[in-house]
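Researcher: Here's my situation. A collaborator sent me these components and asked whether they could plausibly form a single complex. I don't have experimental data yet, so a predicted model of the whole assembly would be a useful starting point for our discussion.
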Amino acid sequence: MKFLFKKNRIIAFTVVFLIIFSLNFFNETVKNFFYNFSYPIQNIFWQTGEKTSDFFSTIGKINNFKKENEELLLKIQELSRENIELKITEKENEELRKSLNLELEKEFELIVADIGGKQGLEDSLLINKGFKDGVSEGMPVITSQKFLVGKIEKTYENFSIIQLLSDKKASLNARIFEENIEGIIKGVGASKVVFDLIPMDSKVEEGDNVLSTGLEGVFPENLLVGKVKNIERNNTASFQKAEINLAFNVKETKTVFVIK
Amino acid sequence: MKKALVIIVSFYLLILFQNSFLIHFGINRFIPNLVFIAVAVLSFLFPNSFVVIGAIGGGFLLDVFSSKPFGFYTVIMFCLSILTMFILKKYVRNPSFK
């Protein structure tokens, strides 16, 4: 301990701390510099982690494969039937659109980005596209399956930080697809999300799909947020609350799309 | 100084490991802060100046790879290492510790 209280050591530590605190003025440059040369290593760690995690989860699930396979076969049959019905509806829809002379839906303009890792232990992700690639703060981020991931929180020259829906600062308007009940999705941290402000008289069930409404003006509508997991009903409260199982799984995703 | 540098490089790799590899294995979505643990353990085993320097370096790197302002983790890691050494010196009596 004595080594710390020598006069020159105290001065040295003070200078070091002052330098570190002053780096807040060059936050973006410093972080971009570190992310730039760390990204290849992070990428290797990410891919290795993904493969190792897949390997262990496969071993863990090996007993359920037969049962799962049978269930999946049944589901395929069900989905094929649904698919045919949807194709018929789509055709009808197209004809109706043409006849009504409606504009076709605008496709999203996307920027493809790879995930490099989490930012610290927070609910945010680092991606390899920055303002140089056209990414700017507030842009929504989705997966290839159109699952909602979050929005761009911070951009650097070559990198950006995604604020995940589970971040404590994140919130968005959403609705339950099956019942058309609106509420607010709020992040509670640690990869958890709740669907709040559901009216008490609404019938919410576990497994219901939650979609974005786009009312808050950040996220496009009808993007899948997740499924209802646990419903919290309290007679003293005026609203119901439900935990949401997010559709986006960070462990299974390598590439995300930033909507311009 | 050489030892401190080795510690800082190890912390750098540890942070990348925990941010990019370990998140695939979070138990109940919990990922431990390895640098925090490492600083506490190193301060306990080697109460020397190089560990304090290493702790400051590790804290700085945690700041870089988090959304917190620069200095946040640096101060925490510095205090942690000092506190561990203080507790070790004042309250731990063990013949194996000199």
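Model: Some features of this prediction you could bring to your collaborator: Chain B has one domain: 2-91. The mean pLDDT of chain B is 83.
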